[in-house]
Amino acid sequence: MGVGRFVYTPILPLMHTQAGLSADAGAHLATANYVGYLAGALAGILAPALVRSRIALRGSLALLTGTLAAMPLMHTTTAWGLLRLLAGAASALVFVVAAGSLLHHLRDHPPHLSGWAFGGVGGGIALSGLLILLLRPVADWRAAWWAAAALTTALAAASWNLRPEEAPLAPPAKAKAKGNGNGNGKTKVSGTAGTHRHFGALLVSYTLEGVGYIVAGTFLVAAIGQGSEEWVGSGAWVLVGLAAVPSAALWARLGRRWSRPGLLFTALLIQATGIALPALVGGTAAALVSAVLFGATFIGVSALALAAGAHLRFPRSVALLTAGYSAGQIGGPLLVAPLLHHGYDRALLLAAAVVLAAAASAAVLRIGFPHRVVTEGGRAAPTGPEAATGTTLVATTASDTHAPRSRALGHSRGEAGRP
C-alpha cells in the first residue's frame, strides 16, 4: 500500500519533464487519488464484511498493481486521474483489511508491535523512493511506473495469504444490555460542554493537518528537486519512508509518559518546521533534514489525534476526525494549485502555515484536557495511551468498526498497568 499510494510523489517530477504533465494537472491527479482513498475507506464502513474478506484483500492488491502498470499505457490526464482514483480506493481497502487482521491477531500483544507493523507504510515509501532514485539516470517515467508495479507485485505475493480479521462472536443478550458486571460494558461520555469544546479543537487541528501534510506529501520531492541535484529529491523521499518506519511505535512509547495533547502539539511544530525548511533555507542538507522531520511525524500525528478522540469518548469520534482529515487531503492540492505556477516554495510555506494553525488548535486542546473521562457508569476511564498508535491508526481508513476493540484493549492495559 505504501508503494501503490505514494510512488506518485517521486515519479511526479519525471512526468512533469517527460510526459508534459502541468503543475495544475499534477495537483488534480493527487486529488483524484485522495478521493478514491476516502471512497475505499467508506466502503469499509458501509460493508463491514470487506474488512474480513480475503477476496477483498486479494482483489484490491491485484487492482492496485494493475493501476500502476496501466499508467504508462495512458496518455491523457483524464485516464491517469481515473487510474489514480482506483489506486486510492484499492489502497484504502488493502489498509482496512490488513489493519483489521493486524489488530485482531495482535490484540493481546503490546501496542508498540502494531506500531511497528504500521511502519510498513513507511517501508513502502522508502522502497518507492529508492526505486526511482536508481532508475532516474537510466529510464523514463514509463519504466518507473512499470518498476513500481513489479515491486508491488512482489509485495502483494508476500502478503497474499494474510489472514483477515475473524468475524466477531455475538455477545449474549444479557451482557449486551448490562455489561459484565465489572464496569466493562459500553461506556459513554457524559455530554459536557468541556468535552465538546475539546473535541472541536481536536477536529479543527486534525482537519488542518490533513491540508498541510498532504501538500508536503505530494510535492516535497518536486520542490526539493527544483533547486538541487537530481538525486536529492528521490533520496529525500527514501528518508521520509525510513523515518516513518519506527515513528508509530516511537510516538506510542512517548505517549506512555506524556499527554497526547502535548505530544500532538510538539509533533505538529516539528512537522511544520520540516515542511517549511526547503523553502526557507534550500540546499541538500536542509532537504534531507526536512525529509526526516516530516517522515517522523505524519503517522505519529494521526495516531495521537485519533487516540485523543477515542479518549474523549465523543460519539463517532473516529469517523468525524477521519472525515475532516480526508476533506483536508482532498482540498490541500487544490488550495495550493494556483501557487504552483511560481514553483513550490510558496506552496510549502502555505502548508507549513496551515500545520502551524493545527498546532495552535492543539495548544487549545491542552487547556483543561480531561485526562480522566467519566463514563456512563460513573467510572473514570484510564488516561494512558494504551489504545495508542497501532490500534488507532486503523481509523485512518475512516472505519469505526474497530473502535470498540481499540477502546477495550486500551482499557484492559490501563487496568493492568495504570491507575
What key phrases describe this protein's structure?
72% helix; 419 residues; Growth Hormone, Chain: A; 19 helices; mainly alpha
Task: Write a brief caption for the model.
The chain is about 70% helix and about 0% strand. With about 425 residues, the chain is mostly helical.
Report on the architecture of this protein.
The chain has 419 residues and is mostly helical. It has 19 helices and no strands. The protein has helices at 2-6, 8-18, 23-46, 54-70, 77-105, 111-118, 120-135, 141-158, 173-178, 193-225, 230-244, 247-254, 260-280, 284-295, 298-312, 317-336, 345-366, 389-393, 403-417. Helix 7 (120-135) runs antiparallel to helix 11 (230-244). It is globular. The two termini are 38 Å apart.
Computed Rg: 21 Å
Overall CATH class: Mainly Alpha
Strands, total number? 0
**What oligomeric state is this?**
single chain
**Residue ranges: pLDDT <50 for 5 or more in a row?**
175-191, 374-378, 380-419
Number of separate helices: 19
What's the helix-strand series? HHHHHHHHHHHHHHHHHHH
State the separation between the terminal residues, measured CA to CA: 38 Å
Helix content: over 70%
- If you consult CATH, what is the topology? Growth Hormone, Chain: A
**From the helix content, strand content and strand pairing, which structural class follows?**
mainly alpha
Number of domains: 1
CATH superfamily: MFS general substrate transporter like domains
Determine the mean pLDDT: 80
Largest sheet, in brief, is:
none
